[in-house]
Structure formats: C-alpha cells, structure tokens
Amino acid sequence: MEESDTIRRIITGCSLTAALEAVGERWSFLILRGSFNGLSHFEQFQATLGIARNILANRLARLVAHGLMERLPCADDRRKVEYRLTEKGMALMPALVALRQWGERWGDGPPCNTRLVDTRDGLPVAEVSVQAADGRKLNLDELRWIVIGQDEESSGKSEEAWPSHSAAG
Questions:
Q1: Residue 161 binned pLDDT confidence (cut-offs 50, 70, 90)
Q2: Alpha-helical runs (H) found in the chain
Q3: What is the pLDDT of residue 1?
Q4: How far is CA 160 from CA 5, 133, 149, in A?
Q5: How many CB atoms lie within 10 A of CB 59?
Q6: pTM of the predicted protein model
C-alpha cells in the first residue's frame, strides 16, 4: 500500500474527529471545567464563565446530546434543573488536565494562580503524558500508528504502519 493511502486510512479511521465534534470548542471545555469544579446550575455557569445565555444553552444541550452531561431536576426544587457530568464526561478529566498543563507551559496568558493537587498528599498532580503499556513515558519519536485489519500478523503488529514522527492522528 502506498504511503499516502496509509496516511489516509490513519486519518479517516481516527476517533479524534468524533471527540472534537462533542467538545471541540472553547465554551464546551470551559463548561466542562466548571462542572469538574462543582458548577451544576445554568445560572452558576452563566455568572462564573460570563457566557451569553443563548450560547450557554446551546453548549449545554450539545454536551447533553453527546452524553457528556445529563440534565436532571433539582432535588430541592423540581422546577429547576442541574447539569451533572456522566461517566463519559468524567472520562475527559485527563484531557482537560493535559490541556491546562499545556496552557500553563506554552500559553501567552497571565500566570495561573491555582494548582491541581492530590487531595491525599496536597502535592501537584504529575504531568499528563502518553505512556507505554508498561508505564514508560513515551516521546513522539517512540510512537507510531498501525492500521488494524487485513494484513495484521498474529503478533499484533501490522505491516502497514505510519512512522513515529507523525503520531498526532
């Protein structure tokens, strides 16, 4: 198979497209961050984030539609609703932490005045990284994509692989 065909199969078979469809814009990430930090009511999100009501309503509806949050009646006042992370939404925590850590290192904004710590020890969480199955931290030159399927050998290695320097698919 030609290199361009392999690249096309890797790119079109990548689940990053689906992930970005669910959360791929600024307000959705900020709403998720707010939810991770305890916000649950429309008014809390609106006041804390400074987001326009129509945009907030749209983004919350999308997050609910994609199964990242659920819309539930409030226990103390059934006329009000709250938005809670689902298991699927909570699974985004490492991605949000990784983005924040990247922003702290490479962002142009003001320095961060908060730090994410382990509640048991009070120590900052470790840098989020890509790890091998045995726990080794991997660099970009230690990664490669394989195309799962037709020509896969019993050893689990595919004859079609994309070089390590292009692992961001």
A1: low
A2: 3-12, 16-23, 26-36, 42-49, 53-65, 87-90, 93-106
A3: 60
A4: 10, 21, 10
A5: 23
A6: 0.80
